[in-house]
Amino acid sequence: MKLTAFSAALGSVFLLASGEPTENVRRKETSEPLLPSQDPFYTAPPNWEQTAPGTILRIRTAPGNVTTVIANTSAVWNIVYRTTDSNYKPSWAVTTVLAPLQNVSAPDNGTHNSLLSLQIAYNTAYPDSTPSIMLYGAASAPTFGGPSTADDIAYMLGKGWYVTIPDHEGPLASFGLGVQEGHATIDSIRATLNSDILPKQIPTKYAMWGYSGGSVASSWAAELQEQYAPELKFAGMAIGGLVPNITKGLQLSGTPFAGLIPGLFLGITSQDAEAREYLVSRLKTSGPYNATGFLAALRYDVGTLFLKYPGQEIGEYFVGGLADLRAPVLERISRSNTWQGYHGIPQTPVFVYKAIQDEFSPVSDSDELVQRWCGIDVDVRYERNEVGEHIDEINNGRLRALEWLETVFDGTLEKTGCDVRNVSVAVNTGI
Ligand SMILES: *[C@@H]1O[C@H](CO)[C@@H](O)[C@H](O)[C@H]1NC(C)=O
Ligand SMILES: *[C@@H]1O[C@H](CO)[C@@H](O)[C@H](O)[C@H]1NC(C)=O
Ligand SMILES: *[C@@H]1O[C@H](CO)[C@@H](O)[C@H](O)[C@H]1NC(C)=O
Ligand SMILES: *[C@@H]1O[C@H](CO)[C@@H](O)[C@H](O)[C@H]1NC(C)=O
Ligand SMILES: *[C@@H]1O[C@H](CO)[C@@H](O)[C@H](O)[C@H]1NC(C)=O
Ligand SMILES: *[C@@H]1O[C@H](CO)[C@@H](O)[C@H](O)[C@H]1NC(C)=O
Ligand SMILES: *[C@@H]1O[C@H](CO)[C@@H](O)[C@H](O)[C@H]1NC(C)=O
């Protein structure tokens, strides 16, 4: 199965790349994964800008031991594909595709393939911290007491679903740039469908799932899809811990999660030289809270961000305090890239779950986004959990999301219209 599927996948690249020099498509197998900055696979081949979004630029079997780390996996691929950045310029990104032990979704007796597009909340401006690399440690990463990402993926593979996991922040680690993240998510699905990894005899149903930073990528993909990828038809989208207005992340200053702020502002300025220059120009050059300390976040993964800045008042790093982060040059990016609900209408049923006491993003923002969608007849089921906060809802919402996604794939999802309800769900995670 592994070899057959791999040759099939390669076949499709050569097909797609026909007419282009063959060195455009490079197969590289290494026994150990390298960091993206060290690994030539994480580059685009010559003339890639002329290809259509979603074109496969490179594909390989994933190096190392992913099939050992993630249970229920038969094979894993990395795909470099063409996408479009936040400046609407050609860009590329990488997605990781995992195949289940059995090809077809069991619930409807094999009338379609099921493909889950999983958006991981990697929340960092560090280009070497990406889901395609994090997967190798997915079984041992901190889980806040619940199942790990490896468990989530194994659960989905165990249902017979294929899973595609984009490095949706792109090569510059553009944490928080919604247009970038949405495009990269959409094109990862196109690239996966363009490969021969999924059996072609039957159609593929595809749906998205993301929590927190992952929900941002999923939501932007849903907002941008109608205009950017009109040929796609999502079967559903499950999003939890929504952050419809990331600018409000500034309220995490002084909390245990303050480290998200340096990551976010370095992320949203990653594709705008003027904004980055402004940001750096406002950093203090001496004292305990200085430019060196802030810019170090360019090399921190999300776990390290939490470790390095807990409780810090991030305004201390800036000459003009937090107000510097509300300057027009940054606000301009926020308007086009960090406020959800203004770019388009999700053309797919949506399941939303959110802790009422979420301290990362006020529940009122999620209420408002859902009301917008409801007002234009998007099919939304919205569960507001009376229990827990942002981190708790990862585990409290996990099974509800997975079970909803199962109904998406097995065809039993019922049209709910606008269904907003308060729930009280506490999953005992033993902590
Ligand atoms: C997988 O490989 C990584 C190094 O790439 C290693 O740290 C890890 O222990 C391995 N895991 C398993 C389950 O083999
Ligand atoms: C699928 O198969 C099961 C068991 O073989 C059967 O009970 C069920 O009716 C079938 N469902 C469909 C949609 O054909
Ligand atoms: C693997 O899939 C089976 C179903 O085929 C499931 O029972 C099992 O829990 C899955 N493993 C994990 C670790 O989720
Ligand atoms: C999966 O699909 C491929 C291509 O259709 C086929 O060759 C292979 O036998 C299938 N594998 C399983 C486990 O059903
Ligand atoms: C997002 O939050 C910022 C900061 O509170 C606020 O200025 C802005 O108006 C909000 N945007 C939307 C669309 O609500
Ligand atoms: C910058 O901040 C770090 C951490 O507090 C400190 O070690 C360093 O001395 C500071 N640099 C300057 C120039 O003050
Ligand atoms: C849900 O709880 C909120 C308070 O958080 C309340 O205002 C609202 O009426 C409740 N909604 C429903 C549908 O019960």
Automatic annotation (TrEMBL):
Residues spanning the membrane: none
InterPro entries (UniProt xref): AB_hydrolase_fold, Lipase_secreted
GO process annotations (BP): lipid catabolic process
Signal peptide from the UniProt entry: 1-19
Alphabetical UniProt keywords: Hydrolase, Signal
Region (Disordered): 21-47
A Pfam match: LIP
SUPFAM superfamilies, per database record: alpha/beta-Hydrolases
Record GO terms (molecular function): triacylglycerol lipase activity
Family under the similarity heading: Belongs to the AB hydrolase superfamily. Lipase family.
Name of this protein: LIP-domain-containing protein
Species of provenance: Periconia macrospinosa
Upper classification of the organism: Eukaryota, Fungi, Dikarya, Ascomycota, Pezizomycotina
